[in-house]
Design a protein that fits this description.
Mean pLDDT: 94
Order of helices and strands: HEHHEEHHHHHHHHHHHEEHEEHEEE
Structural class: alpha+beta
Radius of gyration: 23 Å
Helix content: 40-55%
Distance between the termini: 71 Å
Number of helices: 16
Strand content: 5-15%
Low-confidence stretches: none
Strand order of the largest sheet: 6-7-8-9-10
């Protein structure tokens, strides 16, 4: 007989965790895929979420991935669990979820996130359905296309803005200062921004959050008096969760290794402090060392004359490369410079270049979205191959000039 939700939550508290109350619900795989695609149940509909759902569905059906849970940050937290999971899998997943709920409650990055976001997104969805009935689904989708293309460009609390614009983030500035948007369009952009700001701490703490949850599902499961067969089943599940990712980095494995290093060398107080104050960048910068690099067999690789080759195994270079990749979730920072460029009402933006060139094709495809919400020509300054470059879009034509 395995512990029920109440007993498991008490066990987690006995170990020092302090999670939000969690409402568990077991759901079928297609519904779990849908929730994972939308990231929040009841969220506004859009074709990009449908595309993500199809990717998850195909991955599950082809044996390329399997979702066991989705946890929604809130008070209470909501946890949707795969209804076909075995009893042992469900037990391990509940341990994992309780640690997520503890992380949501105590990590500083989540301090200002709304705790009633499930209700808020349901209200957003209802308002957007109303706009679709009033103004037509094509008009609403056009605004959503533009806003969602820019949803990562929000004030996330982890950037020291150089811009004097108020607000300094692109979506916030468009909401506050665009004279082109109608009230209902501005409302849609504001809803997209609010949801993006709510979700951003999860981008910022993917390694730390998953590492914390993996550390504690391992510790809690080991503390339970389970039959040998159950431990073997759990060991297989844990091994699949922390297995190396081909061509990439497994955040579960990296986060687990960092917290286990802290527990071994600095004790419980250190890991609870790290859970509270660290995001991915600071966790990697402060605690990744030669021991973790050896344990995970990490190395830097890059292109070679024929295929690719190992570039470095030095732990300091690996740490610094990871910090650069994790900064701001790997998303480029775009700052508003001026909303009346050359006194013609044009919008001038600047990419904060920090050693990584923009994906120019992607940037050129995003500028029409900015233009759709601003209504006047837009310009984006960046650096390409060491040269100052300005990309522009006037509603009809794109151009690029260097110098």
């Amino acid at each position: 007989m395995y512990p029920d939700d109440r007993a498991l939550a008490q066990m987690a508290r006995d170990f020092g965790l302090d999670p939000y109350p969690v409402i568990f619900e077991r759901v079928p795989a297609p519904l779990l895929d849908e929730y994972a695609a939308y990231l929040l149940p009841g969220r506004m509909t859009h074709w990009t979420y449908g595309k993500q759902f199809e990717l998850l569905r195909l991955g599950r059906e082809w044996g390329m991935g399997k979702l066991y849970e989705l946890v929604v940050n809130g008070d209470p937290a909501y946890a949707f669990l795969l209804d076909t999971a075995s009893e042992v899998e469900a037990l391990a997943v509940r341990c994992h979820v309780l640690a997520h709920a503890d992380f949501f409650r105590h990590n500083r990055c989540f301090a200002n996130t709304p705790k009633d976001m499930v209700e808020r997104v349901a209200q957003h969805s209802q308002r957007i359905r109303g706009f679709s009935l009033r103004f037509g689904p094509d008009a609403v989708e056009e605004v959503l296309d533009a806003a969602l293309a820019l949803e990562e460009q929000v004030d996330t609390g982890d950037v020291a803005w150089d811009s004097a614009a108020e607000p300094p983030d692109l979506l916030g500035y468009l909401i506050a200062h665009s004279s082109h948007l109608e009230d209902w369009e501005r409302d849609i952009v504001a809803m997209v921004r609010e949801e993006a700001q709510y979700l951003w701490p999860q981008v910022r703490t993917k390694v730390a959050n998953e590492g914390w949850a993996t550390f504690w599902h391992l510790k809690l499961m080991r503390a339970l008096d389970l039959p040998a067969a159950a431990y073997l089943e759990f060991a297989r599940l844990h091994a699949s969760v922390t297995a190396p990712s081909p061509g990439g980095l497994n955040p579960y494995a990296l986060g687990l290794a960092l917290f286990e290093r802290l527990w071994t060398h600095e004790g419980p107080e250190a890991i609870f402090l790290a859970r509270t104050v660290e995001d991915d960048v600071s966790l990697v910068r402060n605690y990744l060392d030669a021991e973790v690099v050896r344990r995970l067999h990490l190395f830097l690789w890059g292109p070679a004359a024929q295929g690719s080759q190992v570039k470095s195994r030095d732990w300091r270079e690996i740490r610094d490369a990871l910090v650069r990749a994790l900064y701001h979730g790997g998303v480029p920072v775009i700052e508003v410079v001026e909303g009346n460029f050359q006194r013609r009402g044009e919008l001038y933006l600047r990419h904060r270049h920090e050693g990584w060139d923009l994906d120019i094709i992607h940037a050129e495809r995003c500028l029409p979205s900015v233009w759709r919400l601003w209504g006047r020509p837009v310009h984006l300054e960046t650096v390409v191959n060491g040269r100052r470059t300005v990309l522009s879009y006037d509603g009809r034509n794109s151009r690029s000039r260097a110098g």
